[in-house]
Amino acid sequence: MNTPMPKCKITVLKRTLNQDLIDEYIDDQLGDIKKCNVFKDGQEIIIDPNTAKAPDEFCNWAWCDIRKDIMTIAAGGNIRGMKENGTVITGCSDWFRNVIFKVERME
């Protein structure tokens, strides 16, 4: 019988906007690109990693990008170099306006 993994807390550390990359690579037809509007800086979301479904308030793109890091932490893994065990800093791969997250195992 498998032991369920502990819940994890995801904190939005910051939303970024790389205007220099937008100016160089994005077609003007898209209009004025702003920081991600799905999340807010400082937002906290508690998730159950035992379910494969993204939380309702989560961006599917970001969820796909950070799911592997969530699973590593939830399964008891630690990331080398992190000051605190059971924690990882991760982010979505929208490099024009990515979001940086902190994932913490809740024990």
Our count of domains comes out at: 1
Supply the helix-strand structural class: alpha+beta
| CA-based gyration radius | 15 Å
Query: What is the strand tally?
Result: 4
Strand/helix succession: EHEHEE
**Total count of helical runs of at least 4 residues:** 2
Task: Describe what this molecule looks like in 3D.
By secondary structure, the chain is α+β, with helices and mostly antiparallel strands. It has one domain (8-105). Helices cover 21% and strands 22% of the residues. The chain contains two helices and four strands, in the order βαβαββ. The protein has helices at residues 19-25, 60-74, and strands at 8-15, 44-47, 87-91, 99-105. It has a four-stranded antiparallel β-sheet with strand order 2-1-4-3, with helices on one face. The protein starts with 7 loop residues before the first strand and ends with a strand. The model has no long low-confidence stretch (mean pLDDT 93).
List keywords for this structure.
alpha+beta, 4-stranded antiparallel β-sheet, 4 strands
Summarize the topology.
Layout: E1 8-15, H1 19-25, E2 44-47, H2 60-74, E3 87-91, E4 99-105
Antiparallel strand pairs: 1-2, 1-4, 3-4
